[in-house]
Amino acid sequence: MISSSGSPKMIIANRQSDSTFEEIPVIDFADASSSNPVRRMALAEKIRDACVNVGFFYITNHGIPEDIVTDAVEAGKKFFALPISSKMDLDIHKAKNFKGYTALLGENTDPAGRGDLHEGFDIGWEGHQPPRSIGQDILSRNDGGMSGTNIWPDLPGFKDPVLSYYHSVVEFGLKLFPLFALALDLPENFFEDKTTKPAAIMRLLHYPPQSPSTLDNDGNEIGIGAHTDYECFTILWQDTISALQVQNTEGKWIDAVPIPGTFVLNIGDQLARWTNDVFKSTVHRAINKSGQERYSVPLFFGVDYDVLLKPIPSCISSEMPAKYEVVTAGEYVKRRLQETYTHSAKQ
Ligand SMILES: O=C(O)CCC(=O)C(=O)O
Ligand SMILES: [Fe+2]
User: Fold this and answer.
1) Shortest CA distance to 282 belongs to which of 252, 242, 238?
2) Which residue of 290, 294, 296 sits with most ligand 1 atoms within 8 Å of its CB, as the best mutation to test the pocket?
3) Tens-place pLDDT, residues 245-283
4) Which residues partner with 27 through β-bridges?
5) What distance in Å separates the CA atoms of residue 61 and residue 119, rounded to the nearest whole number?
6) Phi-psi region at 267: left, alpha or beta (left = phi > 0; alpha = psi -120 to 50)
7) What Å distances lie between residue 231 and 84, 115, 248, 301, CA to CA?
């Protein structure tokens, strides 16, 4: 195939992949915003290898200040320590846009499971003072079923650090879309007009120590059941307790052991759909057998909710025809969230 520029175009769809990984790669992001295109491309190639084979990697040198992370995590701990009645005032089932508090067992990520042994607090886009480099107030945007404001607890010292973390990680995450585009042999700005209003959902998660009464049918205690993420990619902060596991194509669970100072990035289903599964949205779960409290903070990055998830032409070929029906990102995410919360929805 020849591209419009006349140069031979690589059929990414025919790229070989091997997802029998035994460990999760670590990628240094110091060059993420390098002014040198050769350095950006070198980083994009590492990202491509990790996305094609594993779907997960650690990020070092992300540039997000440690105190921003610590303050948000401490705020989360204070929130989860509130009485259950205060947390239930913010019950996620009361909001139509999946924002607020999820109680223990309120979510069932793996349809075969009985509910996940974690509690969570979800927020979406919201402006922040002082203004940051990305748009201030886009709450009035039309996000279809996902639109609406965040709901906040009446807890001094909570909202500000949580929003600071949200904005720092969103700012960092938006810099990754051009790298993913490069990794797919697309123009660097391919996602620019598709990510104008960060469809970024952040969750504070708390996994209590698990007890034998939370064993599932296989004898495992599940903090979050086996699942793939719904958006393009997830940037996850985890504390020092090893609980996250990633499944390779042989069915083996590989521990994503915490590495201090890093984030874990994983590909989600939106990017798997864009790339016709060339980039792997890999199944993962968390089991907290440590006997201690565990905290983590995933931030899910999607494209704008009105954007169609259409396969990128170089990711389809006669051997790899398009696999997925084309839907908008918003429809897709909402459908997946509805499935996740159905089991605990009040009738
Ligand atoms: O807490 C973790 O380590 C993983 C969380 C996760 O997979 C999710 O929220 O989608
Ligand atoms: Fe996940």
Assistant:
1) 252
2) 296
3) 999 999 999 999 999 999 999 999 999 999 999 999 999
4) 59
5) 30
6) beta
7) 30, 21, 20, 6
Q: How far apart are CA 302 and CA 80, in angstroms?
A: 27
- Ligand 1 atom with the smallest distance to the CA of 118 is 1
Q: Are 9 and 3 in contact (CB under 8 A)?
A: yes
Nearest CA to ligand 1 atom 10: 229
What is the per-residue pLDDT for 133?
Answer: 46
Question: Which residues are paired to 56 by β-bridges?
Answer: 266
For residue 120, give the ligand 1 atom closest to its CA. Answer: 9
When pLDDT is cut at 50, 70 and 90, the band that residue 7 belongs to is: very low
| Element of type H or E holding 255 | strand 253-255
pTM value is 0.91
Dist. CA 186–CA 175, nearest whole Å: 15
Ligand nearest to the CA of 107: 1
Q: Which of ligand 1's atoms lies nearest the C-alpha of 238? A: 3
Residue 38 CA to ligand 1 center (angstroms) comes to 33
Pairing of strands 26-28, 56-60: parallel
Q: How far apart are CA 336 and CA 275, in angstroms?
A: 19
Beta-carbon contacts of 37 under 8 Å, excluding residues fewer than 6 positions away, are none
**E strand spans, 96-183:** 100-102, 119-123
Q: Which two tokens stand for residue 195?
A: 């990510």
* Cα separations in angstroms, 309 against 27, 186, 235: 27, 16, 20
Per DSSP (E only), the strands in 152-223 are: 199-207
| Atom 8 of ligand 1, nearest CA residue | 298
Question: 224 alpha carbon to ligand 1 midpoint, in Å?
Answer: 7
CA separation for the pair 272, 7 (Å, rounded): 26
Closest to 208 in 3D by CA, of 263, 285, 287, 264: 287
